[in-house]
Amino acid sequence: QVQLVESGGGLVQPGGSLRLSCAASGSISSINDMGWYRQSPGKERDMVATVTSVGNGNYADSVKGRFTISRDNAKNTVYLQMNSLNSEDTAVYYCNADVRVRYTFGFKTMWGRGTQVTVSS
Taking phi first (over 0 means left), then psi (-120 to 50 degrees means alpha), and beta for anything else, what does residue 54 get? Predict the structure, then answer.
């Protein structure tokens, strides 16, 4: 069994910070790209940030300069440090990973169940 579990979501005031974590566990051979996506009511799920296996990050324009994505390959964990949060950042944040399951061919896209981030005063 392979699963992704997010943690670190919650309520934060505008201008505040929050750090999300996502740990992959199970019969994993290797993990390629990992990332964070978010979805607000009435909107589609959009990419927030992705990170390659060697740590190179890519960001949506709306979060550049405010968010930082990183990963710890030894722990199969990806992080999202979110600073200067505003109300438009309110969404369910989903962890994503391209995982090679042990004894299977190729990579499969896996998703966590999501964690709620609410920015409000």
Answer: alpha
CA 64 to chain centre: 15
Q: Are 57 and 35 in contact (CB under 8 A)?
A: no
Amino acid, single-letter form, for residue 110: M
- Give the Cα separation of 86 and 27 in Å (integer): 38
Query: How far from 32 is each of 39, 46, 75, 113, CA to CA, in Å?
Result: 23, 19, 14, 20
Distance CA 43, CA 41 (A): 6
Distance CA 29, CA 73 (A): 12
pLDDT in tens, the chain (121 residues): 899 999 999 999 999 999 999 999 999 999 999 999 999 989 999 999 999 999 999 999 999 999 999 999 999 999 999 999 999 999 999 999 999 999 998 899 999 999 999 999 9
Distance of CA 119 to the CA centre of its chain: 17
